């Protein structure tokens, strides 16, 4: 996924004084929250449909019709049966010859695009704006409104003088007073939205098959936006296999985690591009959506097994971002997405980063060690279990189970159902490893070891005496592939970087780069671009787009030649934005036998995994 925008989702923002950041020192075992329906007071309902923007600003759409009996439904309730190929175009508006505009840039970062539009509007005293092209995932920045091409050409000449080399003329329709469509064979249909539905609930759109209906929307530029209105679960079925290939990553629990994250993302971002007639785009900017052909039996099973489940905090769906590979540690959301401050995942260590070494004493059997630590010596073997049970019921012995976060000195950080727990290790803590099922009795704890090779997210059980862990048991079998983060290295010459930077900052003439801030995971979150006459600061994911890097987790080293900077060496690891669930990490956790809830809690912290009600009509 690419960048995120708050948009309509702003209504969820309040957010938890995140319980996940609280450091609870464990006393007695707390009741475990059971995933279930969110409280009746919660405003969240699952939408019946997600409207996916597939293409924008078309002059005409050819529709291949149809696999089964189909009809066009107009906004006024009129229905027209259709059969065979036909075309649709926006109805010419009343006295609207269209306007000529200058397209200055097409950028991946929404905020860079908006800022550029504001700068252009100020410096040229002309109307400027940015609009997402749903098919490419790029934000087009356009300026001016000219009645004819000649005037647009003149303005282009002036822009060129000011350093804008790559400007072309686009024609937009004028805003319509009476929007409508012209459908071949039917004629004019009034309204802004037109829906093609079929009995088989499958439609062919731009050469691909989709479940649900085709919707056409006349946008503010009097052009057609092409939308697939898909039932929510069908939408998720067509996202999960593209986002986490079930053949490449065949672990059901990881696929289930992906399904819950994708569903949450869609529910939260519903209505984001309402003005454009759709909720969500189909590119990596949102979630990649493959349509019916992308479906796969294994991801279908994962979607069905988690049907309707979303991640909820403070009564609303969370900002369920996910990233391909995090390089060993995920980042706090607002470091990468400055507009999402306080409103999303905090950072977590990832299994990709390797093991968290836990070193302790090793000896005896678990019961012997615990009895000794309790000051109970000379207990005969057949009485040992009973004495330990008694110690537990008195509260002298406590058991805490959770998933390993990290080890901070002698403080063991665990997460249980997303809640962070910190357990101090006793100086003589024993370590054991077991393949016994979680919840196995203390008499069946496996073998003592001197060090544990536990990865972040692994299941760990600590036995506390006097508030300190006297015994730690690693319960996750280390099966599956070796976790590893894959490093990358790139060289960019000064001239190529200059050119890239000019797209967002025309006339800057880049001279050097200066890192102004790094997040807890090491990601660059603020960068100064020093130009010949001025400097600009860029933050968050925009840095990655601007420099065209796989990740913000990067070291930048200038390399000089002939006395000046010839270019930069960029070395980093991870691929994606580094926030939320790490997809490769989820796969590796599932390989180690962890469940989808544990995976989600590991990366998203204190969230409920709930199944809200459905919207009426679904
Ligand atoms: Zn990772």
Characterization of the model:
It is a single chain. With 618 residues, this protein is of the alpha+beta class. It has 5 domains: 7-49 and 229-351 and 578-610, no CATH class; 60-93 and 177-222, no CATH class; 99-172, 2-Layer Sandwich (Alpha-Beta Plaits), CATH 3.30.70; 355-474, SH3 type barrels; 487-573, no CATH class. Helices cover 20% and strands 34% of the residues. The chain has 13 helices and 37 strands. Residues 1-42 have low confidence and may be disordered.
Topology at a glance:
Blueprint: E1 24-25, E2 49-58, E3 61-63, E4 70-73, E5 79-82, E6 86-90, E7 99-107, H1 110-124, E8 128-133, E9 138-146, H2 149-161, E10 168-172, E11 180-183, E12 187-190, E13 193-198, E14 202-205, E15 208-211, E16 213-218, E17 224-231, H3 232-237, H4 240-243, H5 252-268, E18 280-281, H6 297-305, E19 310-313, E20 316-317, E21 322-323, H7 333-336, E22 356-359, H8 366-373, H9 384-394, E23 397-408, E24 411-416, E25 419-433, E26 447-449, E27 451-454, E28 459-465, E29 468-474, E30 487-493, H10 494-502, E31 510-518, E32 524-531, E33 535-539, H11 541-547, E34 554-561, E35 564-573, E36 581-582, H12 583-591, H13 596-604, E37 608-610
Parallel strand pairs: 1-25, 2-18, 21-36, 25-29
Antiparallel strand pairs: 2-17, 3-6, 4-5, 4-13, 6-11, 7-9, 7-10, 8-9, 11-12, 13-16, 14-15, 16-17, 19-20, 19-37, 22-27, 23-24, 23-28, 24-25, 25-26, 28-29, 30-35, 31-32, 32-33, 34-35
Helix pairs in contact: 5-6, 5-12, 5-13, 8-9
Bound molecules: zinc ion.
